[in-house]
């Protein structure tokens, strides 16, 4: 097994004259949770979109599972970036059925992932009647359909109430023991502190810090030092 499921080497992305991601070199260990932190607009979402092929890098490389990333690797990657794209007029089961057809997956997988995210008893209820938290969980179920080795979640707790956050936290924390590595993007420090094994801090498109979360270290102080550029 590769020690790192994902690495980037001087990954950069420009939009015209704006450099959104600037020479970012990530190292994400297999079967861990990696928290990608940064203020709003720091380049977190752009970085994740590069990792999932939604954006093409301006320069640099992505290594996935020991080889250069290609679109074929998307079969091993699950993604929830921003709000999940769901059909409001369909049930949870029917939404996932659409994607099993597209991905040529067995229909039996649907009940498995619905049970994982706690939506197995939603029956004929239309997704348009779901709470925001239920929609987030269905989005994660959709990302889990293909048995991903890497799960990428961008701000997954946005808009959730405290109970929803607690439930989602427990769910995410269970994934490494199921053979999944998670990259979790957030600007909520307390959330990442409770979930992640390692963190990277992005500011102005640059990876300013990367390392293991230390139990006795003040994450808020570390973050503020890094984004105020006091850290060396």
Automatic annotation (TrEMBL):
InterPro entries recorded: AAA+_ATPase, ABC_Gallidermin_ATP-bd, ABC_transporter-like_ATP-bd, ABC_transporter-like_CS, P-loop_NTPase
CDD domains on file: ABC_BcrA_bacitracin_resist
Superkingdom per UniProt: Bacteria
Signal peptide: none
Keywords linked to the UniProt accession: ATP-binding, Nucleotide-binding, Transport
Keyword Iron: no
Residue span, AAA+ ATPase domain: 30-208
Pfam name, any one: ABC_tran
Family assignment from sequence similarity: Belongs to the ABC transporter superfamily.
Entries under PANTHER family matching the protein: ABC TRANSPORTER, ATP-BINDING PROTEIN
Protein name (record): Lantibiotic ABC transporter ATP-binding protein
Record organism: Parageobacillus thermoglucosidasius (Geobacillus thermoglucosidasius)
